[in-house]
Write a structure and sequence with these properties.
- There is one protein chain.
- The protein is of the alpha+beta class.
- It contains six helices and seven strands, in the order βββααααββαββα.
- The chain has a three-stranded antiparallel sheet. A two-stranded antiparallel ribbon has the order 2-3.
- The radius of gyration is 18 Å and the shape is elongated.
Length: about 180
């Protein structure tokens, strides 16, 4: 399942490879899309349907990822002034998408400048000067989101795959 980056916020693939700002559909993402499509045909999309159960199970499987991102922010961002705690307070979301070209599980960090991850760029207000903002480059911050998610990805991928297999079997059995 390939899922990829976004130009507006921090996004990391749980189930595939990231290719710049666009995602590339791989075999896992295609399988997820097909399974989701079949579940929709069989049981709809409402509360209690197999598809909604699968979505809930996928989000649960990817639950450790946001904690890893928060821990990485707490460790890698500058501690002086409490920036590490400010960034760590943001809670990344686990998002499942079932579209033909967007199928997969993603981790999104809302209200985040993607350049913070890619370049170590931090934009913040200047203390004591209302309306004055500054951009600083913090080399230690560069890649914090990617490193945190890549470290957990193999474990999460295995859980996501197990969930998909379980729901495919349930679909075959008609349960």
């Amino acid at each position: 399942m390939a899922v990829g980056g976004s130009g507006r916020r921090g996004v990391q693939s749980v189930t595939g490879r990231v290719s710049g700002a666009r995602s590339e559909m791989d075999a896992g993402a295609q399988a997820f899309y097909e399974l989701s499509k079949r579940l929709k045909q069989v049981g709809g999309t409402g509360k209690g349907s197999l598809r909604s159960e699968m979505t809930k199970a996928l989000k649960q499987a990817a639950k450790p990822m946001p904690k890893a991102v928060k821990d990485a922010a707490r460790e890698q961002f500058p501690k002086r002034g409490g920036l590490n705690n400010v960034v760590a307070k943001r809670t990344p979301k686990v998002v499942t998408r079932t579209g033909a070209t967007t199928a997969g599980v993603r981790i999104q960090e809302p209200k985040s400048d993607p350049r913070m991850n890619s370049q170590g760029r931090i934009y913040h207000p200047l203390f004591g000067r209302k309306g004055s903002d500054v951009v600083q480059i913090a080399p230690g911050v560069k890649g914090y989101f990617d490193e945190a998610t890549e470290g957990k990805s193999p474990e999460i991928r295995a859980e996501v795959t197990a969930v998909m297999v379980e729901f495919a079997q349930r679909l075959i059995r008609g349960v």
